[in-house]
Structures are given as C-alpha cells and as structure tokens.
Amino acid sequence: MLEPAAARDKAISLVELAQKKGADAADAAYVGERSQGVSVRLGALEDVHRSEGEEIGLRVFIGQRNATIASSDLSNDAMATIVDRALAMAREAPEDRFAGLAPEEQLFRGEPANLDLNDGGDPDPGELKQRAQRAEDAARGVQGVTNSNGSSASASASIFAIATSHGFSGSTRATGYSNSASVVAGEGSSMQRDYAWHSARHLKDLESPDELGARAATRAVARLNPVSIKPGKLPVLFDPRVATTLLGHFIAAISGSAIARQASFLVDALETQLFAPGVTVRDDPFRERGLRSRAFDGEGLPVKPMDLVKDGVLTTWLAESASARQLGIQPTGHAVRGVSGAPMAGPSNLHMAAGPRSREEMIAGIGEGILVTELIGQGVNGVTGDYSRGAAGFLISNGEIGPAVAEITIASNLKQMFATLEPASDLRFRRGVDAPTLLIPEMTVASA
C-alpha cells in the first residue's frame, strides 16, 4: 500500500500517460487498504485474517465517449496496458453528452482540512482477540443468554487518492476499528437472537467491549416470549438503529440520477415542505473523526456542511457532475467513487437533528403502539414511495414499553411518513448515518 503522496503521484502519472496516448480528458482513483480481524465463538478462536491490497482505476474520455478500467497491478507495464485498453474501449463506447470531468472552475484549491481520521494504530491479532473475547464474555454473562453466534474485532487502514487531467489531485489516509457481538437467548422454538456493533476512526473512541456485549445480550433477552397483535393503524416508534433506514430511502430519492430518470417519488418535491416544520437533515463532511468525513469529493470538488432539509423544506438534490448536467444545475460536491465505474452522488456524515421531546415523553403519550427495533425485507418502492416491511420490536401499552412482538408488518407511504414524523431528543453520532428515535403517528400494522 502506497503512502498518500506516492498514491497521489501514481494517479497523476496514470492520467498524464492517458493524455499522452490520446485521451482528451482523464481521471484516476487509487484505493489501498490493510485490514485484519479476529472472530471468536463460545470462547474459542474461530478465524484470524489479515489482508493488504491496492487498486487503481482510470477513466478516459475521447470526445463524448468514455470508458473505465481498473487494475491491481501498479507496475509501469500494467499502467501502459490499462491506458491502451481504456482508450480502445472508449473508442467503441456510445456517446454520452452528460459525462465528463467536474467543472474546472469549481475544483477544490488549497490545503484540505485536518479531519483527524487516522490514529496511526495497527493492533496485533492478540489485542483484537482479547477485545472480541471480552465482548462475548460480557454477553454470555447476562442471565437468559443460552448460546452465541460469535463476536469479532477488526482494524483497518486505508489510502485514497484521485487525480484529474484538468488540475486536481489529492489524497487522504484513514484508520478504522470495529467490534461486534451476536448472541441467542432462550431455548428451543422460543429462541431469540440480537446483536450490537460499533465502529470508529480512532481506537480510543470505540465503545467498551463489555458495554457492547452486555447490550447485545440485553436486547436478545428482551425479545423472548413475543406476543401477537391485533391489526390496525397505530403509532410506530423507530429505534435509532432502524430510524437511519428512513434517511437511506430519503437519500436514494433525492439523488440526481434518480431525479433525472424521473424514477423517484420526490421528483417534484424540491423547495417544498417535505417534513414537518422544525425538522432538519444535515450532511457534514467536516465532522472530526467521522466515518464518512472527507476534505473533497470524488471528482475533486470542494465539500461543505449542508442542510438538505431545513425547517422541513427540501433544499437540494444530491448531484455529481453527470446528473447535474442532466438536471441543468451545478454539482453539489457529493460525488463518491471507487476505482471502477463513474462517480455517483452520495452523502457524507448524514443525520436528522434531534427534536425537543424525549423518547420517554413520546412513549408516555402512546396508548397503544409499536417500538420497532428490527426491520426485515426490502418492501420499498422508490418510484411511488410505498413502504411495507417486516418488523420486530415491542408493544407499547398505556405509555409503557411492554412485551416483544415479532413477525409483524408495518406499512405506509414514505411521503406521508416524512410529512408527519417527529424526531426525539436522543440523537447520538455513532455511524455514517445517524438519527434519533423517530415517531410516525400512524402506520398500518399487522401480523406477517
């Protein structure tokens, strides 16, 4: 794996070679990663792995034709070969009047912000094994836990670099750590399983394995002895770990490519009241140690914190250069890419801001409802917004969380859900996408 400066230089040299051989324009992306992990189950070591690899991708343009090719061989001979192949592919590709590099006048200039994404660590397998074992031991020590699906711990380091033929080059370095545990509670046909997981850029920010394991066990035990429910229209609370999925549907619906294809239920929603007044959805690429923080986007454009939804109003699409040209707008600095294929639009650190009411206050005001802690299946139509998914969680009765419920379905339409949802005050920044508990005042709930 190359150092950041060397990775940037490699991308620059590949672009220069492509221009020398006949490309009208080109860009290149380098990704290098070192990762290792350990998994244990029932106190015994199950797996140890370590890998290190690197790839470089080249995109070339000949007029309005383009092609992309990638290689894990970074030798000079391999670089010459992929340039020749990319150019040959581009000459045979169909014309695409929207494809091209980002606008040169908008490229990021200057020094990138220090986002503190790298702690320089490289723990040995023994440290990772100890972390995984502690998480599993903590989980198995909770009364009611009868088995384990295992626990794991991992560490990684990565380098990303891009270069374009019209003057941009940049590179970043980041580390990452994660820990997970999954256990089973109960016996026979009444068994239930659940898990806990956490990831961080710095090892010292990672949740204690004892707390993580205990949380996984408590969740599993709480799901024992689920009760049946009567079908009907009920208020539904989305626990933070599933509330983020609603933001995922929102982002897919406002991506420039979906809007340009007229394949989104939000195609006419720009600058309209999509959520209730007071609701904010914010994208923040500059969060220190954020899992998706970045100093520039995948096309070399500057990035900035942005309210995608402000006081409930949808303010923007997410557009990389190609979809921006289709829509007749400027790119928004949200391009993401790997070494293969063209850049696509995607968020950085995304969250829905906390609301004024606590989760407990919301629950206290519900006579009968559902707290959803797990979603199952993919029953979401991105064109119509129709929403129907399998779920599990807990019954809410008379303002208190009651017994577990399982094998239920919840259904509505995302536009209606967005318009009526209320965020609670329990927002925590733990993932790349974060949300507090979300209350949907009415959904159709039934047994699966």
From TrEMBL:
InterPro entries: Metalloprtase-TldD/E_C (IPR045569), Metalloprtase-TldD/E_cen_dom (IPR045570), Metalloprtase-TldD/E_N (IPR002510), PmbA (IPR047657), TldD/PmbA_N (IPR035068), TldD/PmbA_sf (IPR036059). Residues 126-139 have a biased composition (Basic and acidic residues). GO terms for cellular component: cytosol. One of its GO terms (biological process) is proteolysis. Residues 231-446 form the Metalloprotease TldD/E C-terminal domain. Residues 121-224 form the Metalloprotease TldD/E central domain. Residues 112-151 are annotated as: Disordered. It comes from the Bacteria. Residues 26-90 form the Metalloprotease TldD/E N-terminal domain. One of its GO terms (molecular function) is metallopeptidase activity. Belongs to the peptidase U62 family. This is Metallopeptidase TldD-related protein. It comes from Sphingomonas cremea.
